[in-house]
Design goal:
CATH topology: Spore Coat Polysaccharide Biosynthesis Protein SpsA, Chain A
Structural class: alpha/beta
Oligomer: single chain
Order of helices and strands: EEEHEHHEHEEEEEHEHHE
Helix content: 25-40%
Number of helices: 7
Radius of gyration: 19 Å
Low-confidence stretches: none
């Protein structure tokens, strides 16, 4: 029988935000939000945290997540990519090629059980894609972005200087929430931005957290959403699937 396995990369040594993965976010270590959403989804046979830190392991195990190994130092630096971390974790545990693996990022307070479930359903429905991940549309066309060159701001793509924004192709970026994929695709190290199915989520329902400014913005968003009854019902989220 195929299993659903969650893998949460959570290394120590974050540079821009100290102890980011277990820093308190509105009253509890931030990693617990992701782990609780995974547990509440009732989808996972195993939830595994890949870490090099005893402190992170203790927080994860306090609510029932597994830490069956410690990640080696060569996979714990800031330049290590997600595929290598998941590949290592899969090799450390017993999986079948058809097992569904969901890589869930640790600093992820906006993750909801509904969104995780939708991602799995889309993976099961579409046999042609490698991964499913939430994405968000850029708030302004990136074709009209500005860059700093020769002492002044100028257009990165001057050919679009006089193009109206509504006539430019929409662009999207990942939300750093999760990636569903089959174990064999992770083991083959299929490119994460290759054959990809995206779930477009509202911009206010996600926040990639890399800096102190991001952290503050995430807290402000989350407090506002709590006041609105977060997590909101599935029909209010207005998810769009990008195939």
């Amino acid at each position: 029988m195929q299993e659903n396995i969650g893998i949460v990369p959570a290394r120590s040594g974050s540079q821009r935000i100290k102890n980011k993965n277990i820093r308190e976010f509105l009253g509890k270590p931030i990693i617990l939000y992701a782990l609780e959403a995974m547990q509440n989804s009732l989808l996972f046979d195993r939830i595994i945290v890949s870490t090099d830190s005893v402190a992170i392991a203790d927080v994860a195990k306090s609510i029932g997540a597994e830490v069956p190994f410690f990640r080696p130092s060569n996979l714990s630096g800031s330049d290590v990519n997600t595929i290598d971390v998941v590949h290592h974790a899969i090799n450390e545990i017993c999986v079948s090629p058809g097992d569904r693996i969901c890589c869930v990022y640790a600093t992820n307070p906006f993750l909801t059980p509904d969104l995780i479930s939708l991602g799995l359903n889309l993976l099961l429905e579409d046999g042609e894609i490698d991964y499913v991940t939430p994405v968000v549309r850029y708030g302004f066309p990136i074709q009209r972005s500005l860059v700093f060159r020769d002492g002044a701001l100028t257009m990165a793509n001057p050919q679009f200087m006089y193009t109206h924004s509504q006539n430019l192709e929409a662009s999207y970026h990942e939300t750093a929430q999760f990636w569903w994929g089959y174990a064999d695709r992770w083991l083959e190290k299929a490119p994460m931005q290759g054959r990809l199915l995206g779930i477009c989520v509202p911009s206010w329902s996600q926040q990639d957290i890399d800096t102190e400014e991001d952290w503050l913005e995430a807290e402000l968003k989350f407090e506002s959403l709590i006041a609105k009854g977060w997590p909101l019902s599935f029909d209010k989220m207005n998810y769009k699937v990008l195939r």
